[in-house]
Amino acid sequence: MVGKQDFVAVARFRRALRRLLKFVENLALEEGITPQQHQLLLAVAGHPEREWSSVGELADALQLKHHATVGLVDRCQIAGLVDREQDPGDRRVVRVSLTEKGEGILQRITTRNIDNLRKIGELAAELQLVGSQASE
What mean pLDDT comes out for the span 63-72? Predict the structure, then answer.
């Protein structure tokens, strides 16, 4: 049964997560980009297998419709944050990669964000501990 301690832990985690998101949104705005542009930069850089992402992969990562992702990529390209090119092996695939400007902005935001991520991790571990105690 879920008890008061679980509610407190979940509420603390939710509050910390929202603070983290707000903090990152503000970092993006300070860098002159929108939070959505930051999310796209992070999705490109965070691809585990290569230095670029397809528009379809970005749509999935950001949980956006394909046409909304294309619009976001357009705005990022106009801002000089990303480049796009056709995949030489499959002309249906558009590769999106970071420019130096996009990489620099993402580096600055992520560097300032690392401490907050560690705090969220500590709270998540605490939440897991509380949850395991409740199931005993």
Answer: 97
Q: Taking 70 as the threshold, does the pLDDT of residue 105 lie above it?
A: yes
Map out the domains of the chain as residue ranges: 4-134
The three state secondary structure string of the chain is CCCHHHHHHHHHHHHHHHHHHHHHHHHHHHCCCCHHHHHHHHHHHCCCCCCEEEHHHHHHHHCCCHHHHHHHHHHHHHCCCEEEEECCCCCCCEEEEECHHHHHHHHHHHHHHHHHHHHHHHHHHHHHHHHHHHCC
Instruction: Name which of 14-18, 56-60, 118-122 the model is least confident about.
Output: 118-122
Q: How confident is the model at residue 55 (pLDDT cuts 50, 70, 90)?
A: very high
CATH number of 4-134: 1.10.10.10
